[in-house]
Amino acid sequence: ITTDExxxxxxxxxxxxxxxxxxxxxxxxxxxxxxxxxxxxKILDFTSGQMSSVLGHSHxxxxxxxxxxxxxxxxxxxxxxxxxxxxxxTAVTSMLPKGLDKCLFVSTGSETNEVAIKMAKVYTGKxxxxxxxxxxxxxxxxxxxxxxxxxxxxxGPSVPGTFILPTPYPYRSPFRxxxxxxxxKSELDYGFALIDRQSSGSLACLVIEGxxxxxxxxxxxxxxxxxxxxxxxxxxxLLIIDEAQTGFxxxxxxxxxxxxxVVPDILTLSKTLGAGLPLGAVVTSTEIERVWHEKRGYYGTxxxxxxxxxxxxxxxxxxxxxxxxxxxxxxxxxxxxTAFEKLxxxxxxxxxxxxxxxxxxxxxxxDPVSKVPAENLGQAIAARCMETGLSxxxxxxxxxxxxxRMAPPLTITEDEILEGVQIFDxxxx
Length: 429
Ligand code: PMP
Prior knowledge:
pyridoxal phosphate; binds 4'-deoxy-4'-aminopyridoxal-5'-phosphate; alpha/beta; 7-stranded mixed beta sheet; transaminase activity; PyrdxlP-dep_Trfase_major; pyridoxal phosphate binding; Aspartate Aminotransferase, domain 2; Aspartate Aminotransferase, domain 1
């Protein structure tokens, strides 16, 4: 990896530290599944940027739309609506069932969840929020209050009325029986029993990801989301499903909620919708939107419904549908998962390979019996991969394993997948 002279000094002199480490890598350009450093060295991107560039970097059709839209209309006063916004709303809702009929477009995933939680509070007239212990929903104040994966410090000093449900984690849950079966139902009942003791009876919503990503790519157990929905109905709460990462084909279906057979009251979409540009959508029913409006719900920000990014969003949806990206993700995902499962047979430090479509978790342990997380090993492998040409991401939460999150662009080829897996194999070795 090469960097221009002064790059690292400039980083430390000029940038506010965000709370985590910087990768000491300077990227000059990116195309398809590849990133390039200043010397032209190639790095394969197994994270789609920040889990966003589902169509690969600088997809030519997106570049074309951006150029054309820039020449005509980029930004407007927020009371004005333009065709690209309506096109994007039509495109997004064309992929969704009835009950997900109306859209509001914002810039980031944090913002989508900020809007969704506010909408649920206005709709129900209540204020308490439930989220999973390893969930991630954003870094702005309200969305961070529902982001327990980073603990309370993500939201700053305490936000009242937010409660934790244990993340379903079959590999490590204390509700896993010695025979390997996992009693998620008892775990869930226990979680709700604790919340009901803490709640003042003002539960407004539960926010949950399609696959818990920051927890280490944890798909929800079969039946889990249906049970969650029933609990929400019982308590008069709205169900918000956050498909920032899982939306638009990533998991082998257009949306993860389809796989579980549950339609959310509010769906939040971001990352994959803009495919690398800042675009998020909050989608809900005509009825919830009506009540939100009647109760004088308000959300208006500078870049809400911006034409430039909405033109991109409409094109992303068109390409996802036209090129059957969900199907491609299912097929390539199986291919990739098989390759990682072969590595699991080869290396006892791989404890589990899991996930769906092109969203695969590879968890590292010190040994498969103790399952003690192999934190330093994972970090060392990630660093070695970066040196030898593969960008991949590892998450490590307290009390949980160290897991790689493999989520390459859905446009990746099988040869590129094999190339990446080989780099990973050599790094482990
Ligand atoms: N929800 C999920 C599931 C996410 O993974 C993220 C980003 N990691 C967010 C919300 C927040 O999105 P953003 O960083 O665009 O605000």
